[in-house]
Amino acid sequence: MEVRNAGSSSEGTEDSDFSAEHTDSSESDAHAVRNTRLTRSSLRLSRNSQDIKESADHDESPPRTPTGNAPSSESDIDMSSPNVSHDESLAKELSLKESGLAHRPKRRRFHESYNFNMKCPTPGCNSLGHLTGKHERHFSISGCPLYHNLSADECKVKASSRDKHVEERTLSQRQDENRHSARQQAQTERQLRYKEKVTEMRRKRNSVPLKEQKDKYTEHRQTHGSSREPLLENITSDYDLELFRKAQARVLDDLEKLRLQGQVTEGGNMIKAIVFGRYELDTWYHSPYPEEYARLGRLYMCEFCLKYMKSQTILRRHMAKCVWKHPPGDEIYRKGVISVFEVDGKKNKIYCQNLCLLAKLFLDHKTLYYDVEPFLFYVMTEADNTGCHLVGYFSKEKNSFLNYNVSCILTMPQYMRQGYGKMLIDFSYLLSKVEEKVGSPERPLSDLGLISYRSYWKEVLLRYLHNFQGKEISIKEISQETAVNPVDIVSTLQSLQMLKYWKGKHLILKRQDLIDDWKTKEAKRGSNKTIDSTALKWSPPNGT
């Protein structure tokens, strides 16, 4: 009897598949006698298996397949052997078909893990190649060779060069380990030569770009804009640039492995950038925009009504018809080009929802998006001849039992590090003073928010101590004067090392060095980015 391993030959699999199909075509003719044949063949199979067992007892080695492997089970026996009748072959094939063992599962090819509906967002790119040189396709800017001013073949050449360098370095490290067993050891000759080589490569770099190179950089930037990576040649040494490229490739290779494992998905409904007025802003966090908009990767927004759109054409048509030039609500503050509008979440629900969705793109801890009715929004703008442009905003509850004067605060990225964040914080405490309350921001604060608030509290305390002429001072008096919560005052004093405990009493140390530094910074900053309390035209709302 011939024995064959079903998984060792593709021809055997094809034969079994064909036999199964042939059996399917003759099932209608043999339906009446199927049960009789199955019963008869089962009896013969049991006898035949006993004969095989007896012959195996006489032969110590099990029967082998043409590839040299022993059959793994009774299903591995080829029923087309002349020693087995046609009824037994038919019965075996029917039993295999009913149990689902006659068909081998389809093998998944590597490229099936790619989603071919996705396309690289780089203009003119066909999604072929990868910056790492190890993959055939890409669907993101980070892996796009064209964006990095390379071709797919160049990426493959660089990848092979990197692999060769890694092998050489690993081999040399093993040789060094064999030579030196001690942990603390001097540098080897090879390491010293390599160090000298790197120093020489860094010294050769031309620190002042030539006119031709500057013209080349300018032309590249004007031609491609932000759709291509800037030319990096001569910005640093060739050695450091190659280190940067290696780090890029290594990170992208790790991301590609995670994607193939299913831990990272392509186009996972993450908005990468927004076009907002004359700015294009890269986003920081996920925001729950509707799926049809989120999967685009880039949104176009009206900077006045905050409506979001899918394309530049739709935005251009909208701007031609949009009558908004400032936020809705009441203008309660104006000084120069800076204005603040009070917007009720109940009266202007759509605008406030769009504002929250926009803020979530740049805030990690924000959870409020659609339930905006219990909140008031104070939107700061900067005016020019085209309208009032959004600078930032903060929201607060209409009725806060814990006296929170800020629920969420945001400065738009294009206005960060210009003093607008402290203006928003100062304005929130100005409202608390008018309400004759002590305020504090709602926790948890974002990383940038915590930095801004600590800096603001520090300035408030130093200004107060600078103007204070008495001998005794209390935390309560500072809180009533500045509207800052006593807990925030104590934590700030502790961080400045100005709060001491001596002879059973807490003492506030007036550190003149900190006050002098604050006065110097205040003189340089000027009075352009400060809130003028006389410009406020507002009265506390009556239980809304």
TrEMBL record:
It holds the Pfam family MOZ_SAS. It catalyses: L-lysyl-[protein] + acetyl-CoA = N(6)-acetyl-L-lysyl-[protein] + CoA + H(+). Gene3D superfamilies: 3.40.630.30, 4.10.320.30, N-acetyl transferase-like, Winged helix-like DNA-binding domain superfamily/Winged helix DNA-binding domain. GO terms for biological process: DNA repair; DNA replication; positive regulation of hematopoietic stem cell proliferation; positive regulation of nucleobase-containing compound metabolic process; regulation of transcription by RNA polymerase II; transcription initiation-coupled chromatin remodeling. The lineage of its organism: Eukaryota, Metazoa, Chordata, Craniata, Vertebrata. InterPro entries: Acyl_CoA_acyltransferase (IPR016181), HAT_MYST-type (IPR002717), MYST_HAT (IPR050603), WH-like_DNA-bd_sf (IPR036388), Zf-MYST (IPR040706), Znf_C2H2C (IPR002515), Znf_C2H2C_sf (IPR036060). Its EC number is 2.3.1.48. This is Histone acetyltransferase. One of its GO terms (cellular component) is chromosome, centromeric region. GO terms for molecular function: chromatin binding; histone H3K14 acetyltransferase activity; histone H4 acetyltransferase activity; transcription coregulator activity; zinc ion binding. It comes from the Eukaryota. The active site is at E442. Residues 19-32, 50-62, 159-180, 190-201, 211-227 have a biased composition (Basic and acidic residues). Keywords: Acetylation, Acyltransferase, Centromere, Chromatin regulator, Cytoplasm, DNA damage, DNA repair, DNA replication, Isopeptide bond, Metal-binding, Nucleus, Phosphoprotein, Transcription, Transcription regulation, Transferase, Ubl conjugation, Zinc, Zinc-finger. Residues 266-540 form the MYST-type HAT domain. Belongs to the MYST (SAS/MOZ) family. Residues 1-11, 66-84 have a biased composition (Polar residues). It is found in: Chromosome, Centromere; Cytoplasm, Cytosol; Nucleus. Residues 35-49 have a biased composition (Low complexity). Residues 1-90, 159-227, 525-544 are annotated as: Disordered.
